[in-house]
Specification:
The structure holds two protein chains of two kinds. Chain A has one domain: MetI-like fold, CATH 1.10.3720.10. In chain A, α5 crosses α7, α8 crosses α9 and α12 runs antiparallel to α13. Helices cover 76% and strands 0% of the residues of chain A. Chain A is flat, with a radius of gyration of 24 Å. Chain B is mainly alpha-helical. Helix content of chain B is 73%, strand content 1%. In chain B, α2 packs across α14 and α13 packs antiparallel against α14. Chain B is globular. Chain B starts with a helix and ends with a helix. The chains are: A mainly alpha, B mainly alpha. At the A-B interface, α1, α4, α5, α6 and α7 of A face α1, α2, α4, α5 and α6 of B.
């Protein structure tokens, strides 16, 4: 075989391999999407008919959002995530800026350590403290716990971001009569929009997906989506179609975000892993 | 006032986060630590009773706890080895030019970011022994149907490991890929001139030059994998009959299923020490690696 045809063969093999891996990777997600349009009867008789032989239905989605109240849970998830992220940005941006500008290397290590603490260490004390304060089953408790998810990501991603903004720009602002706080807000924060977007995206994903804190701290009226999906199976009879529709509903926003803004998400996820 | 603010800028900027950390982290951790020396059923009438180290003695003699420690080690160890090997291989693979690279990368990201609880439900449907597609595939390949997660044997643990591998290999891949992109082209060119084959360039150039990013990816995974909770709780909840019960799950069940708060606190204190130990090791390695860069 000539060198050229061998090269073409390797190329083809590489492509096949990549697309096979890709298929395995996204298969569960495709399967979930497919099953969410499938009637229950067809799902439980999987083995007895062809895989794609069914009349697609929207009934699963309709029942999830009307009978099972998922619109309320979706709203809860959004409220908790947005307020938690907003508050975390409010206290996290100044903190990250201080760590970056005043070269507080020790504090940046603390941020990393906070991210490592096993969530289970907080469950008991939070549960008991929030119960005593009468805050269990409220948004406040959930938001505070989700801030613990969001804050370390925001600070961790923003430290190198603020470090990369040249000091000269802020000094120029001082000369123009800006206070140091003014320079922080008008120069550093304004120039960090991509970093803030990355941090917000990551914080949103992890707050949206959070299960452990929500299952302990949320009550009837504050149930978030992961908890609602989990409770779905505790009924004796599993409505698989409905369950998959619910799973799709919760995954969809994340899938859309990561397909549109993958660059930011990847840079956020790998922050700290790769230098530079 | 304005002058005072200017002078103490550092403190002013850090204080809100510091208060949050003290109230939401330090105080709860201290409270948890204190609880681990008491006997308490979270009753408002009966205050926690101080019982010294009894909870720790109880935990360390509890066979179910020791089994959960062993399972955590097995789960984490096997998952990390597979994820590292596959992750590095995939990183090398997607580092080549191919058609649709951006889209492939974006799609590969999905298992990492998709809600773990929802994915747990999907895997439950796929691996459901009687109606799932899993056994349809197994039978089509000519094997006997498997019980998958519905067995007390090691098999349920194995499939949970596979789910974890599915979920997190792309993460390792992305981190290693980030490291690969920083490798300059020149060593490869001189290796080509010296007549090195592909395997030699991989083991002699790629691996050593990417080793620090691989190491960091592995350590970051290690910190997270021992804490795996969502995917296990959403699928098996530690069952059937404890076959997939890790430390995290056993601790959680002690809190909110058995209401043995003192014992649960002791478990979470021990777990905290282990995880933070790994974490400090990680930081040591990380700072070493970054200096070498």
């Amino acid at each position: 075989m000539s060198r050229k045809s061998k090269n073409i063969l390797t190329k083809i093999l590489e492509h096949v391999l990549i697309y096979v891996v890709l298929f395995i990777t996204i298969f569960p997600i495709l399967w979930m999407l497919l099953a969410s349009f499938e009637p229950q009867q067809s799902i439980i008789n999987q083995a007895n008919h062809g895989l794609f032989e069914f009349v697609p239905t929207l009934r699963n989605y309709i029942s999830v959002f009307t009978e099972y109240n998922f619109s309320k849970y979706t709203l809860n998830s959004f409220i908790v995530a947005f307020v938690a992220i907003f508050c975390s940005l409010l206290i996290g941006l100044p903190c990250a800026y201080a760590i970056a500008r005043f070269k507080m290397r020790k504090s940046s290590v603390v941020v990393l350590l906070v991210r490592m603490i096993p969530g289970i260490s907080f469950l008991l004390p939070w549960f008991s403290i929030f119960s005593m304060l009468g805050l269990r089953n409220t948004y406040t408790a959930l938001i505070l716990s989700h801030m613990l998810v969001a804050l370390p990501y925001i600070v961790w991603i923003m430290i190198p971001n603020f470090e990369s903004i040249p000091m000269d720009l802020e000094e120029a602002a001082w000369i123009d009569g800006c206070t140091r706080y003014g320079a922080f807000l008008r120069v550093a924060v304004r120039l960090s929009t991509p970093g803030i977007l990355t941090a917000t995206l990551l914080a949103f994903i992890f707050s949206w997906n959070n299960f452990m804190f929500s299952i302990v701290l949320s009550g009837r009226s504050t149930t978030t989506l992961p908890v609602a999906v989990f409770n779905f199976v505790s009924y004796a009879y599993i409505d698989w179609g409905g369950l998959m529709a619910a799973a799709c509903a919760i995954t969809l926003p994340i899938v859309i975000l990561s397909l549109c803004l993958q660059k930011y998400i990847i840079s956020g996820l790998t922050a700290g892993a790769v230098k530079g | 006032m304005a002058k005072w603010l200017e002078k103490h800028m550092k403190g002013v900027l850090v204080t809100p986060s510091l208060i949050f950390i003290i109230l939401m982290i330090i105080v709860p951790l201290g409270y948890n630590f204190a609880l681990s020396f008491t006997d308490w059923q979270m009753s408002l009438v009966k205050a926690p009773q101080f019982i010294g180290l009894a909870n720790y003695k109880n935990v360390l003699h509890d066979e179910r706890f020791l089994n959960s420690v062993w399972r955590t080690i097995v789960f984490s160890g096997i998952a990390i080895v597979i994820e590292t090997i596959l992750g590095v291989a995939l990183a090398v693979l997607i580092n080549r030019k191919f058609y649709g690279r951006r889209l492939v990368q974006a799609l590969m990201l999905l298992p990492v970011v998709a809600t773990p609880v929802a994915m747990g439900m999907v895997w439950q449907l796929i691996l459901e022994p009687s109606i799932g597609i899993g056994n349809v595939i197994v039978e089509a390949l000519g094997f006997a149907p498997r019980p998958f997660l519905a067995t007390t044997g090691f098999e349920s643990m194995f499939w949970l490991i596979m789910i974890d591998v599915w979920e997190w290999t792309p993460m390792v891949m992305l981190m290693v890929y980030g490291g690969l992109m920083t490798i300059p082209q020149d060593p490869y060119e001189s290796a080509l001139i010296d007549g090195a084959n592909k395997w030699q360039t991989f083991t002699k150039i790629t691996l050593p030059l990417a080793s620090s990013s691989i190491l960091i990816a592995v350590l970051m995974r290690l910190i997270d994998v021992v804490k795996t909770y969502d995917i296990i709780y959403a699928t098996t909840q530690g069952g059937p009959s404890f076959a997939t019960e890790t430390i995290n799950i056993y601790g959680y069940l002690n809190m909110f299923a058995y209401y043995r708060f003192g014992k649960a606190a002791a478990i979470s204190v021990l777990f905290f020490i282990v995880v933070m130990g790994i974490g400090c090791g990680f930081l040591k390695v990380k700072s070493k690696v970054e200096v070498e860069y």
